[in-house]
Amino acid sequence: MLEERMGDCWSRTKDQFDNLEKHTQWGIEFVEKYTKFVKERSEIETNYAKQIRNLSKKYQPKKNSKEEEESKYTFCRAFLTTLNELNDYAGQHEVISEDLTSHIITELTRYLQELKTERKSHFHDGRKAQQHIESSWKQLEASKKRFERECKEAERAQQYFEKMDADINVTKADVEKARQQAQMRHQMANDSKSEYAAYLQKFNQEQNEHYYTVIPNIFQKLQDMEEKRIERISVCMKKFADVDRQVLPIVGKCLDGMTNAAESIEPKADSKQVVESFKSGFEPPGDVEFEDYGQAMKRTVSETSLSNTKESKEKPGGKTKGKLWPFIKNKNKSPKQHKEPLSHRLNDFMASKPKMHCLRSLRRGITLNSHVRNLIEGSVPEDFSHLPPEQRRKKLQGKIDELSKDIQKEMDQRDALTKMKDVYIKNPQMGDPASVDPRLTEIGQNIEKLQSEVQKFEGWLAEVEERMPSKSDSQRKSGLYETQNSTTVSNNCAQDRESPDGSYTEEQNSEVQVKAQPIPTPTTTTEFDDEFDDEEVLPTIGTCKALYPFEGHNEGTISVAEGELLYVIEEDKGDGWTRVRRNEDEEGYVPTSYVEVFLETNAKGQW
Length: 607
Prior knowledge:
Substrate Binding Domain Of Dnak, Chain:A, Domain 2, SH3 type barrels, disordered N terminus, mainly alpha
């Protein structure tokens, strides 16, 4: 059979041709469906990465004082690391989405167009071959019918001739005419036979070529096209899995980073940080004395003791010099307590009115003073006087460090402008030296203002450190509590700190009268190095590449083109300009943001 001779080829009859057309169309639809599936997966990865990034951004610490305080704790730093790793984790999902789009979706979309075009071409050739064989068949059928008709006409003409020849009444001329008609019909039948035979031979040859050559070739091409389609689907499915597999190592590193961040949490260190953060600098209050209500047990004291007792009673009624912080040192008084006879202390203990709730009164005084100050000023005091001593000292020190950094930055800018001015003086063609004077004046004023601020905060810091008890004082006082009656000392301290109305007060001019110690002002030299001499060429400390074009209209600048390579002879000193050289004669300043600088390793420490 024909189908057995064609083997595994798709070559079949006409109905199979139609079935193959349907099958290949279904294959194209499958590719479109798989492409849509990958596209939706890519969109899911993109949306997931976006949501993860938004989540990480949402919980990123804000730039305020509270977040800076939280960054001191290991668990807060671990959470920040987790957010950063989560952000990188989201980036890997973006990589998955990009790879799916570029390696699968784009490739399949382009392949679908090629597949449709190839399929259309093959089936067009197949339909053309079918139409050709059908046309040959129609010609064969027409020649066959014509041959059959001519044969019948020749037979009827022969019968008519024989009938006329047998009839004696028919003239010889009629008989001859009938004979010629019969011969003509026989000739036409023979011609039709020859034509039919030729068409038949031609059709058989074309049919043989159609079913054994043309159609098998077309079907073979369709079969190859289908196998390539299936192979392409296989490759895309493999890439679909490889895209995820390629990011697994980086995802694993992100997860390892989260794990390491969690393992870096130190509970004891965080608990110690709580102590450092909230340590107030207050000394604990003394012991509360015993209140004896038994009149019968009241001891008899001497006249001297009674007089001392009266004096101690009258003293709180006079001018009270209340302090906000308990147990602070007064610079006008010696830190040592006056040594009194033990009998005097016992008399004070027995006769003076007890002052209880020392810590409660302290808290009330702090709260009242803080509220009043905040209501008057409307914000946190500049000297941080609303804070306990230890916290106030930390805040003041941090403010001083911040101002010192600002001063250093301004001084760096002044040094850079001073060097530029010196260059202009020695090389007038590069620029006008007077053009930098306004900026130097402004920077000098800023430095003076910042230095005055530093002196002010230094004064407040000195006051706080003077008032805060040292470790030696604490040890001395602790020894005193062990040897003497702690209740008496506590009572005296409570009397000194508490105002008549039971709240703690603060001297109005205690901070204003403190004279700030002058701090050494950083001096800047006006002398310049020999590198600015005209006779000596500045050495190169690296190279740079221009990221953007710069025209350099101002004096002292140099024009550069995008992508141009130059030599760096002086890096940015904080003023935003870098000094470069094109050759031995052309050098000048360019904006630092316009170039990418590559400094030499051994030259970084020279400038």
